[in-house]
Amino acid sequence: MASSDGQGGSRRVTLTEVARRAGVSRSAASFALNGRTDLRISEETSARVRRAAEELGYSPNTTARTLRTGKSGTVALISDFIGTTSFANAMVRGALQTLRDADTLLYTVDTQGDPDVEAKLLQNLLDRDVDGFLYASMFTRQVDVPPLTRNAPLVLLNCASPDIPAVIPDERGAGETAAAALLDAGHRDAIWFVGSFPPGFTGAAVWNGWSPLALTERLDGIQARLAAAGTALAGTAPIETDWDVENGRAAVTRLLGSGARPSALICANDALAVGAYHALSVAALQVPEDVSVIGFDGSALTQAVLPRLTSVALPYEELGRIAAGMLLQGDPASRPHRVPMPLVPGASIASPAPRD
Amino acid sequence: MASSDGQGGSRRVTLTEVARRAGVSRSAASFALNGRTDLRISEETSARVRRAAEELGYSPNTTARTLRTGKSGTVALISDFIGTTSFANAMVRGALQTLRDADTLLYTVDTQGDPDVEAKLLQNLLDRDVDGFLYASMFTRQVDVPPLTRNAPLVLLNCASPDIPAVIPDERGAGETAAAALLDAGHRDAIWFVGSFPPGFTGAAVWNGWSPLALTERLDGIQARLAAAGTALAGTAPIETDWDVENGRAAVTRLLGSGARPSALICANDALAVGAYHALSVAALQVPEDVSVIGFDGSALTQAVLPRLTSVALPYEELGRIAAGMLLQGDPASRPHRVPMPLVPGASIASPAPRD
Question: Which residues form a coiled coil (chains A, B) (predicted)?
């Protein structure tokens, strides 16, 4: 193994040299080496870049040193609530894995959404010579980036802002995936959506349970996919205060009480879906024989219910890995990088029950 | 509100002066002001200390400045996995709340259990003049504290080591609480424990699902409480690989298949209890009419099952708050501070079903 301090004296291979050898642009080389899949780089091109990197002895560790040169070998992940709540922590894990491979340490700090604390933390971190920032949000949303972050390399994680490198989940694609899973099972005219912004919600940066980008984009994707199949949602079961189990139970209880006969429920997150299970159980309806259910998030709740809940997962660890890689390598993209949200199959989807 | 920088010039009131005015020892005053309940300080004494503190204008913020004086106003929470997993994060939240009230910033760093990373992080943090360390473990356990932590004030959080101030959950009391809840409902001779160390477990600092102190002490408490009532566990349903839903389901399926007829199950954590629900459901046994169930942790899983699971909760936020308070004030105790684990009632305990 090479010394982690790389005092060997051989000249450092640059990304530009790898790109030149592979016959691709520097951006394409960066994307290929970051394992990113959103740009249309063919597998053949990607393999050529990796081969060129190998032949030249270019390694992530080497590029990591670009960020580190003469600096502290320390990066800070500054977030609203990720470090202090049991949600989205896998983003920190992903970032840590990538940074650790690059011999770079990670500090995590939470502002709890307080701009004063945020400014103090940023100044404190800059005073301590951190080499770069991952600016992260617990819920996917648009952010106004505090000016102090611009004093070091910056990548946004699970949030977006114009002209700043960013990594966010492909929420619209996730909506399409959820709708497709139900269409594929034969559902069509009695698919309901469970979830809404609670009354009075203004789109501000509240954290406890809603996510402007997620709801809007998931719903867009669902509607687009259903429209492409010549159908539409039968309706929406709105929730009252939060995206939690109790609100899911209440919303679906109201829906069933209204006389609606859903064949399938697309729930805005897993907690609402678990609440839907409870409401269906009380109404003596079986999942999936009587009603199919699908959620979003891919959380541990999917395994807590019987049968296991099918969900479209937030790829938190991958978001963290990719954002850290972009911070280490420098990112040439001007639009947010969208990470696909995978379907995690459970046993909560079946063919629609026969209607009488 | 006073300026957070406290430039007012009035002399700082010390804890010793508060103790003298209240007529108690400095330790007792410290315990009373930290809201600690493990020492046998009467409510009357505690009230006298608080009154003295108020009369003298002594405040946590004032004491916070003791740690900060001439330093960086920054504390680091160094843990194995807390920042990168969705477990125990409330400890960070509790610490952050207390530190924020004291105008002190918190860095969180995870070592992922790697001693090399740990040493690098500690040196990195010391180079940056952090004022103190909270050394934390995701699972309650004995730790060997790395020597570098001794270069700054140190409090252990959810772990223990001889002669170092530490805060841990009262796991033995939690076991007693669980047993008492079942005894109170009338259970006696058919109470089974679900959970064990998996085969080959050696007590090393593995993280993924077991907790040496928790299992041993919870079981001690259960057995002591049952013995005090003149009875004992009917037996243990061992688990195979981890304390998760699937292992809980498998363990209880085997138990029922062996012909055992439990009236109640004490599960080593909530995930195993959820698995127990699934096994009981498949066997057409109702919770709590046929079998009562209780878990430990007080996690979000308790709300995912119907009826809601009764659990003995890990007081994570309180652990974090108390540890941060001890770090700010200096802690005179030589034994670990034990924080009570509260019963969080669900609807999973009822009187035993009649036996034929």
Answer: none
Q: Say if B244 falls within a structural domain.
A: yes
Are B180 and B307 within one domain? yes
Residue A65: inside a domain:
no
Dihedral of the alpha carbons of A108, A113, A115, A119, in degrees to the nearest 10: 0
**Interface touch B92/A110, C-beta < 8 Å:** yes
Please name which of B191, B177, B178 lies closest in space to residue B352, comparing C-alpha atoms.
B191
Interface of A with B (CB under 8 A): 72-74, 83-87, 89-90, 92-93, 96, 100, 105-110, 112, 117, 120-121, 124, 128, 244-246, 274, 277-278, 281, 300-301, 303-306
- pLDDT exceeds 80 at position B257: yes
Of the partner residues A72, A89, A246, the one whose CB lies closest to the CB of residue B85: A89
Residues of chain B with Cβ-Cβ distance to A90 below 8 Å are: 84-86
Phi first, then psi: give them for residue A341, nearest 5 degrees.
Answer: -105, 115
Over residues B132-154, the pLDDT tens digits come to 999 999 888 888 888 888 888 99
Q: What is chain A's Cα-based Rg?
A: 23
- List, for residues A321-350, the tens digit of each pLDDT value: 999 999 998 766 667 899 999 999 999 999
Give the lowest-confidence range in A197-206, A281-290, B165-174, B343-352: A197-206
Short-list B304, B194, B179, CA closest to B249: B194
Q: Which amino acid is at A264?
A: A
Taking an 8 Å cut-off on Cβ atoms, the answer to whether A245 and B301 are in contact is: no
- Taking the C-alpha atoms of residue A264 and residue A250, their distance in angstroms, rounded to an integer, is 17
**Nearest chain A Cα distance for residue B86, angstroms:** 4
Residues A252 and A282 in one domain: yes
The CATH number that applies at residue B189 is: 3.40.50.2300
Q: How many Cβ pairs closer than 8 A exist between chain A and B?
A: 102
- Tell me whether residue B5 is in a domain: no
Q: Do A217 and A198 sit in the same domain of this protein?
A: yes
Read off the pLDDT of residues B90-113 as tens digits, 9 standing for 90 and up.
Answer: 999 999 999 998 889 999 999 988
Which pLDDT belongs to residue B202? Answer: 43
In B, what residues contact A, Cβ < 8 A? 72-74, 83-87, 89-90, 92-93, 96, 100, 105-110, 112, 117, 120-121, 124, 128, 244-246, 274, 277-278, 281, 300-301, 303-306
Average pLDDT, chain A: 84
Domain count, chain B: 3
A128 contact residues in B (CB cutoff 8 A):
128
Same domain, B42 and B84: no
Q: Read off the pLDDT band of B310 (50, 70, 90).
A: very high
Q: Is residue A233 a part of any domain in this protein?
A: yes
What residues make up the domain containing B79? 70-168+316-339
Q: Is the peptide bond before B315 cis (omega within 30 degrees of 0)?
A: no
